[in-house]
Design goal:
The complex is a heterodimer of chains A (102) and B (359). Chain A has 1 helix and 7 strands, in the order ββαβββββ. Chain A has 102 residues and is mostly beta strands. In chain A, a hairpin with a 2-residue loop joins strand 5 and strand 6. Chain A starts with 15 loop residues before the first strand and ends in a 10-residue tail after the last strand. The chains are: A mainly beta (102), B alpha/beta (359).
């Protein structure tokens, strides 16, 4: 959910950005990080723990804790809290430590 | 290999301030920042700062960020900026390995200021890794930078200044703050922040903490318990609170990983937030020409980080042969500003902590 009214800040309408999340259409706005756009869509499970596959989400928002790592355009372990959303991005939930393909 | 006079790792309040005074002294620098933007954690701080005019008191953190960023941008010939760039390696000969757009490169610096700041601590309780449990600072970023709400019904754990301020900002964003939990017997932060929350009907439950999070893929409930004076849970005092987001604000840990890579002498000082470098009066670590500024050498308010940055920038410049024309006067003034910021009962922990890390 997005803030529409705020006593101090203003959030003017921005250009909509379409992307793909786990095979489905998603959208965010210019200036969103991937994690912020997913949250605004109500998606809070972003990754899994490596061994027990426990669901994990956003925690630190500074690119430090690795809890929001996802596969973005085929690249695993992308820190979605500090990576800006771009038009047409393909974002996937990561199920393992990540594999790199050429 | 690229060669630089001064490399500043971290583009938050202390790193930006250091670049400014180094430039004023005539020394060029490169700021390396892993985020895609400068400003560090100031960019989400919508509240007005305390302190004195010199540390931008009565100015909102978001506006202080703009001032500090504009300051460094006003030296395009002396201050170079790399964002979206992570320092992944640091070596004793002051070689820095950076990762930028999937490419590694190396930089050799004459001096380095490590201004990496701190990261949010986690709290141990059952299911503390469930989506919907966030660091308080992360929630502040989500709301105040991106305009996205973390949830509808939120509980804050921790009544230090960050916990209190973020609770108030959640209310400003239209979120229902159900209560603030505090494990200690008294509220940790300033009374002025606590009173604001109380006036808005938010209960601050002291001697209370969270035992367990409950939910499936996302958080739905927490179980809380009262604590005795020794911080043990008191059986039979459990309560269930329904919520969709829990904010954890139990302090920050200095981000000193890079310092450990070059074997800087470190010490665990809990009043400074954890593992911190031993430093000289000039903010120099045990490795020559490697300096620190800001939260990495002890977690404090952003105001102190800014002043430490100004101070360290001047000192490093002077050491490399670029003495500011007003050096002595400025240094003395900055040192007395830091003393002021650390005065009084709230500064006692910091004052004692800093004594422990002086080389």
């Amino acid at each position: 959910m997005r803030i529409t009214e705020h006593p101090i800040l203003s959030f003017p309408e921005k250009k909509q950005i379409a992307f793909v999340i786990d095979g489905k259409e998603g959208y965010g706005y210019e200036g969103d990080t991937i994690a912020a756009a997913l949250h605004a869509m109500g998606i809070r499970k972003l990754s899994h723990s490596i061994h027990l596959k426990r669901p994990r989400g956003f925690y630190c928002a500074i690119g430090n804790c690795a809890s929001c790592n996802m596969i973005v355009d085929g690249v695993p372990n992308v820190r979605t809290c500090v990576t800006l959303l771009r038009e047409g991005m393909v974002v996937k939930t990561q199920e393992n430590k990540g594999e790199i393909h050429d | 290999m690229i060669e630089k006079d001064l490399v500043i790792i971290g583009g938050g309040p202390s790193g930006l301030s250091a670049a400014k005074t180094a430039a004023e002294s005539g020394l060029s620098s490169l700021i390396i920042e892993r985020d895609y933007k400068l400003g560090g954690q100031l960019v989400k701080q919508t509240h007005m700062f305390f302190g004195s005019e010199k540390q931008y008191a009565k100015t909102r953190g978001i506006d202080i960020a703009k001032i500090l960023i504009d300051d460094v941008l006003s030296y395009p010939n002396l201050i170079e900026i790399m964002t979206n760039t992570a320092v992944v390696g640091l070596y004793n000969d002051k070689v820095i390995t950076i990762l930028h757009e999937e490419k590694y490169s190396k930089i050799k610096a004459r001096a380095i200021i490590i201004a990496t700041g701190a990261s949010e601590k986690v709290l141990a309780f059952e299911n503390n890794d469930m989506p919907g449990i966030y660091g308080a600072g992360a929630v502040q970023t989500l709301m105040n930078v991106y305009g996205v709400l973390p949830g509808q019904d939120v509980v804050m754990v921790g009544s230090g200044n960050i916990g209190l301020i973020v609770s108030y900002q959640l209310l400003q964003a239209g979120v229902n703050v159900k209560c603030v939990l505090e494990a200690a017997g008294t509220i940790g932060g300033y009374k002025v922040h606590a009173s604001k929350l109380k006036r808005l009907g938010v209960d601050i439950k002291t001697s209370t903490s969270v035992i367990k999070a409950v939910g499936g893929e996302c958080l739905q409930k927490i179980i809380t318990s009262k604590l005795d004076e020794k911080w043990n849970f008191i059986p039979g005092t459990e309560e269930t609170i329904e919520l969709d987001a829990l904010c954890v604000s139990v302090g920050l840990s200095p981000l000193g990983n890079l310092l450990s890579m070059i074997g800087v002498e470190m010490k665990y000082v809990s009043s400074l937030g954890g593992l911190v470098p031993m430093i000289s009066h000039s903010h120099e670590t045990s490795v020559e020409n490697v300096f620190v500024a800001g939260d990495v050498s002890g977690v404090e308010e952003a105001s102190s980080a800014i002043v430490e940055g100004y101070l360290t920038g001047l000192i490093v410049a002077q050491k490399l042969g670029f003495e500011h024309p007003n050096y002595e006067v400025l240094i003395q003034d900055l040192r007395s500003q830091l003393d002021n910021l650390r005065s009084g009962p709230f500064g006692e922990k910091t004052r004692n902590g800093l004594l422990e890390i002086m080389r």
